[in-house]
Amino acid sequence: MALYLTESEVNKIIDIKIAIDSVEESFRMMANGEAVNKPRERLPLGSTSMNYMSAGIDSKNITGLKVYVPNSKGTKFYVHIMNAESGEIISIIEANTLGQFRTGAASGVASKFLANRNSSKVLLVGTGFQSFTQALSIDSIFDLEEIYIYSRSERNRRNFIDLHQSKFKSKLTQVQNIFDPDDVDIINIITNSKTPVIDEKIVNKGTHINAAGSNHSLRRELDTKTILKANNIFVDDLDQAKKECGDLIYPESLGLIQWRNIINFSDIFRFPKKYSRQTDDITIFESQGLAIWDLVLANKLYTLAKENNLGTSIDV
């Protein structure tokens, strides 16, 4: 029997701390060779595609698969957890909220290790479904003064603040353009833009950038000058970045950067002294999204669901 969890059940047990812990644990497992991650594949299907990604954890004897078909009317995500020896399905989890939290948590984890510890001001670019947990994860890790909220629509900016301010320690303030805030420590962008949104002119010494929306080779959120300005560029997984990270694929194709100089974020845990930041360093974390994040978080939710008598047992 497998345990099936709905979105409403996931929402009862998930929080940003569990997600942050899961993503950090994922990277540590990758650094220690305890986990394997398979980059996303996109199977073309007419006007859409079936997207799937997988991972496995030796120490827990589990493997997992995330699968979804993009749909303009509302994409449904599912994570399957399987026993790595028997192949039996342990759980099937509706994963829209799971994905939102693990994606946001990744930016929080990256900021924890790459941004200056006294960071107090954040610029959040984008106010869509994924943006809330992006800001929430950073707010939970740092003692922030203010998070500046930018999107092209004033209505979207206001709605974001009205809906979420009560969940934050820091003040949310809308800005009319990305050049308005001064002395921003962390820039966090998550959009579906095909052309760069971040201009290098707003990137000062000591800034850390999380770019979380460029998970397709044809999407770009950071201009090339910003990429070239960085002291260190980290990716969640180099193999996946070579397929999906438009921010890096474009300048690499022009010979302006080389993949050998791009760093797997898990190397932070393997070589902490080598990648310790200097105060004035400009750092970038390019986030495409990893199946290992889904699997670790899904497994924690599965355990919590059983403890709280949530979910439906099904024959598979």
Short characterization:
The protein is 34% helix and 25% strand.
How would you describe this structure to a colleague?
This protein is an alpha/beta fold and 316 residues long. The protein folds into two domains: 2-99 and 292-314, ornithine cyclodeaminase, domain 1, CATH 3.30.1780; 114-289, Rossmann fold (3-Layer(aba) Sandwich). Helices cover 34% and strands 25% of the residues. The strands form two sheets. Strands 9-8-7-10-11-14-12-13 form an eight-stranded parallel β-sheet, covered by helices on one side. Strands 2-3-4-5-6-1-15 form a seven-stranded mixed β-sheet. Helix 2 crosses helix 3.
Annotate the secondary structure layout.
Layout: E1 2-5, H1 7-13, H2 16-31, E2 35-45, E3 48-57, E4 62-68, E5 77-83, E6 89-94, H3 96-114, E7 121-125, H4 131-141, E8 146-150, H5 154-164, E9 171-174, E10 186-189, E11 208-211, H6 224-229, E12 232-235, H7 238-244, H8 246-253, E13 263-264, H9 267-270, E14 283-286, H10 291-307, E15 312-314
